[in-house]
C-alpha cells in the first residue's frame, strides 16, 4: 500500500497484476498474476520493449498504471506503491 506494507495472507488475493505484451503475431496479450504474501510478483519470458503494467486493488478498483522498459538480457526490478493505505 502507500506506506510499503505488504499485503500478507489476507489481502494478497485482493490484488491482481496485469502486464500487456505483444504476442508475436501482431496482436497483444495480457499476462495476469497475484503477488505473494510479501507483495512480490514476477512474469517470465517478457519480450524486449516498453509494456503496460497495471496493479489493481480489486475491492475499490483502484488501479496503479506504469510502463516498464525491458532491455536485452536484463532483469527488471521495481517498487510500486498504491495511492492509499488499504490494509
Helices and strands in order:
Elements: H1 8-11, E1 15-22, E2 28-33, E3 49-57, E4 62-70
Antiparallel strand pairs: 1-2, 1-3, 3-4
Describe the structure.
- By secondary structure, this protein is mostly beta strands.
- Helices cover about 5% and strands about 35% of the residues.
- The protein is built from 1 helix and 4 strands, in the order αββββ.
- The chain has one helix at about 10, and strands at about 15-20, 30-35, 50-55, 60-70.
- It has a 4-stranded antiparallel beta sheet, with no helix packed on it.
- A hairpin with a 4-residue loop joins β3 (about 50-55) and β4 (about 60-70).
- The longest helix is centred in the first third of the chain and has 4 residues, at about 10.
- The chain is elongated and about 40 Å long.
- The model has no long low-confidence stretch (mean pLDDT about 90).
Amino acid at each position: 500500500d502507500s506506506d510499503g506494507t505488504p499485503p500478507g495472507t489476507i489481502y494478497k488475493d485482493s490484488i491482481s497484476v496485469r502486464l500487456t505484451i505483444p504476442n508475436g503475431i501482431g496482436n497483444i496479450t495480457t499476462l495476469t498474476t497475484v503477488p505473494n504474501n510479501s507483495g512480490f510478483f514476477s512474469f517470465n519470458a517478457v519480450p524486449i520493449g516498453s509494456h503496460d503494467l497495471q496493479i489493481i486493488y480489486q475491492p475499490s478498483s483502484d488501479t496503479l498504471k506504469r510502463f516498464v522498459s525491458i532491455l536485452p538480457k536484463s532483469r527488471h526490478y521495481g517498487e510500486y506503491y498504491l495511492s492509499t493505505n488499504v490494509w
